[in-house]
Target: Tumor necrosis factor-inducible gene 6 protein
Amino acid sequence: MRPLILALAVCFVLKEVQGWGYKNGILHNSIWLEQAAGVYHRESRKGRYQLTFKEAKAVCKYEGGNLATYEQLEAARQIGFHVCSAGWFDKGRVGYPIVKAGANCGFGKIGIIDYGYRLNKSERWDVYCYNPDAKECGGVHTDPRKVLNTPGYPEEYQDEQICYWHIRVQYGQRVRLHFLDFDIEDDTACLSDYLEIYDSYDDVSGFAGRFCGDELPEDFISTGNVMTLKFMSDSSVTAGGFQLEYIAMDSDLLNETII
Ligand SMILES: *[C@@H]1O[C@H](CO)[C@@H](O)[C@H](O)[C@H]1NC(C)=O
Ligand SMILES: *[C@@H]1O[C@H](CO)[C@@H](O)[C@H](O)[C@H]1NC(C)=O
Ligand SMILES: [Ca+2]
Model:
């Protein structure tokens, strides 16, 4: 019993420590959880559902951002941003983005679960912020051909990044990924930092692989006209990052070597 309790206690302390850290030279007073298309979710350092509306606004401002608007939250949701925690967003509204229906989250519904404009701004929730500086990370891409890379490339990526790239080419075409450079913190199960490929419009279904280390992954071709890439880095140790090119391919050209 004792060692288990001790392990749990150590775990808890580590978690607390990770809640604080320097990012872009600023000491963060809340926990960086998830981010998509410039929208990210934060909870108070004290835990879940601890922020009044005023405090929520301050959390976003502190990091150079603002409360997300409903439209920004919905845009992020459409590229796979799924968080099961109600938070303040623009104009004192509260809700959360749900991509995949579940019994324990969102009452089985999909979309922005909207608690409406709160009359009592002293209620305590989490918060959804929008930071235009985070835009370079991920996003929706509909060009037939494009080079994508980790934020800041060719500089090393930073700790605690979460990026979703949603690629959508013309109906009837497929997406071919070709890696040009690849260097992500290495560990055996890619638990620290990783790139995940989903043969799907979101990161809920169609999982096709998780990659880390410095070996170039092989080309990957989608079955349909959409693909989702998710990059995550944890709170320590960075690396060179990756650069890849995607190309929209007509299905009848698939057997040709284009790259
Ligand atoms: C507003 O919400 C806070 C926190 O839940 C509560 O303590 C307070 O009584 C509420 N005020 C009113 C007027 O309902
Ligand atoms: C690609 O080549 C395989 C055999 O090498 C063939 O069975 C398949 O039909 C070809 N696909 C297309 C789209 O031409
Ligand atoms: Ca790392």
Notes: The chain has two domains: 30-130, 138-252. The mean pLDDT is 81.
